[in-house]
Amino acid sequence: MVTRLRFIAIVASGGVLGGCTLLTSLDGLSSDAAGSDATAPASEAGSDGAAAGDAGPGDTGADGSGLDGSTRDAAPDAPSPVNLAPNPGLETGKPDCAPWGGYEATLASESPGRSGALACRVCAKPDVPFFTIDGDVLTAPPIGSRYRAEAWVRAIGTTKPATVDLHLRTYNTVGGFVDRDQAVSSEIQIGTQWAKLEVEMTVTKTAERLDVFVAGGPPVGAGTPCFLVDDILVVSEN
Questions:
Q1: Cα 168 → chain centroid
Q2: Average pLDDT, stretch 142-151?
Q3: 38 falls within a domain
Q4: Are 183 and 200 in contact (CB under 8 A)?
Q5: DSSP β-ladder status, 131-139 and 146-155
Q6: How far is CA 71 from CA 54, 77, 79, 90, in A?
Q7: How far is it, in rounded angstroms, from Cα 61 to Cα 160?
Q8: What average pLDDT score do residues 118-134 get?
Q9: In a domain, 213, yes or no
Q10: How far is the C-alpha of 193 from the C-alpha of 237, rounded, in Å?
């Protein structure tokens, strides 16, 4: 077998490349000789000469990922949402549970907490039907933004409120305090075991601030109603 390669003389820019004819004899060479055969099918050629179908456990998979299907398809863990609540575990150690405040209530750190060293005891002032622990979460929440809140509560002392619930609320203060949006969880009757309150809200009106609060109702029996709260969570769901 003889292959003839011709280089044709080219004349350009006043220069000349000389033409030549190269004859190369390939007689005696095997037509299926091993080497870098560009026409070899993928099933027969690999980087180590092994067939792709013979790849062992340590070899790269058919899609080049090196992973089996179950591993490739596993989604990465989603990042934990940011808790917007101030001092959510009530662990600052300040005697009044700061930066949390209260409406018609006195606040005091209490040990132990549900998940840490401290919780907050919330007690009503005398002769009030409604009292809270509350805290601002953020300013100027955008219309259409969605939020979810949780809080854990339980009874403490000899007198408890008839019910406890959890609120998300937006409000304005210019020209006086005005509620804008508000969502309220189901009311629950608390006992000595921790119970979780949950509520969700979508912002539909412009407002200066978003806050969260846990509210207690009137007392069951005589005395000052109190409850414990811990592990408050507020997250954006957008």
A1: 20
A2: 98
A3: no
A4: yes
A5: unpaired
A6: 21, 13, 19, 40
A7: 64
A8: 95
A9: yes
A10: 29
| Tokens 């412009």, located at residue | 206
Do the domain assignments include residue 224? yes
pTM of the model: 0.67
- Give yes or no for a contact between 197 and 166, defined as CB atoms under 8 angstroms apart: yes
Report the C-alpha gap between 210 and 143 in whole angstroms: 12
Mean of per-residue pLDDT scores for the chain = 78
Q: What is the pLDDT of residue 79?
A: 77
- In a domain, residue 7? The reply is no
Provide the token pair at 36.
């870098």
Longest dimension (CA), the chain: 116
User: Do the bridges between strand 164-172 and strand 101-103 make them parallel or antiparallel, or are there none, so unpaired?
Assistant: unpaired
Residue 26: the pLDDT is 38
Number of domains in the chain: 1
Domain range for residue 138? 101-236
Handedness of CA 40, 41, 42, 45 (dihedral sign): negative
